[in-house]
Write a structure and sequence with these properties.
Rossmann fold; 2 domains; globular
Amino acid sequence: MTAIPGEFKLLADIPLQHPSYFGESQIIETQPLVIEEDATILPRITISQDKDWANCFSQGIFDASGNHIESLNDQRSHRKLFFPKSRLEDAAGYAEANTKKLKFMLYGGTLYDHFGDMLVDTCRAYQLLRLYRYSQEKIWFHYAAPRSVRCLRAPFIQTWLDCLGLGDRFRLIRRPMRTRCLISCPQIYRDLRFISRDYPAAARVALHPKLRRNLKQVKKEGHRIAYLSRHKLTEGTSRFTQESELVAKLKAIPEVDIFCPEELGFEEKLSIWLSHSYVVGFPQGCLMLKPFVADAGHNNVAKQIFLVAGPQSLPSNWLSIEKACDFGDFYLDCDGIEDAFTKDEKAEKFTRSNSINVTKIARAIQELAASLR
């Protein structure tokens, strides 16, 4: 592949003191499966009106001695999510008389309504599919929604489960359950903390075989650049104030195709890394899809270029994935010169609003496009 222009830098080399970077990043060794006999599973229960959503609910799995199995509750960074009391008899939601009995359970973790969280926090299911792809056993999940919600609120969750081949195999935990044997695994990805050496292999085989076959038919459309735009989003974590202006400039570059991921189906999203030579964008959940389409040698998959602008705009998660997958991806510093936070009505629906250097980004992508001709 043509050498990349000099303004782009290797993501693996980003200094940990970089003003846009935040979080921790490490690779952990492969962890054994969790196999528990006579396990008790408690559903999601509202336990308080705490302002911290992680403390408002309780859910969890307990061993035969009644001890909470911490490795089967999610954590983000050092923050515990929905942890119950450490002893079964003290935990909210336990009712012996209402307990459903199972002989066997595959536990896939928790489903979240946020797109990026759903992709990576479903990692237990990816690991289980390496062993149980062709099993008829259901895979059970907690769901991060009030128990009064009877179905998945975000349509993309069902669609993603269909992509995994779990559309008819998944079940939601709604009541206390006891199983003679439970099989699951610890997190093989944890937000802002670590990624397991197992994650790349688990992600590569997570998609349903039929979908993987379809994606293998996708051909490179010449040497093209895909730009994943956030400019139509009305809320979220980070807003980049002049992105609409940047999109207008990029439209004038013949080699650039502009996509708004929220307007695409999953197969269309996944195909982008196979049909293009480069995928460029500000950090966003859609960029987490790359490990699912990469082959072991990465011969078929586009390089990613992360645009970073302003404080805390590049979570450590992408560095963790880079360390584990060794993609050879890049980043570009593109801070603007305006105040970092704007007070307009649209910006108030985002956690932060950062200015960007439109001229620098457009010039760098123009140079990249020229190198591909």
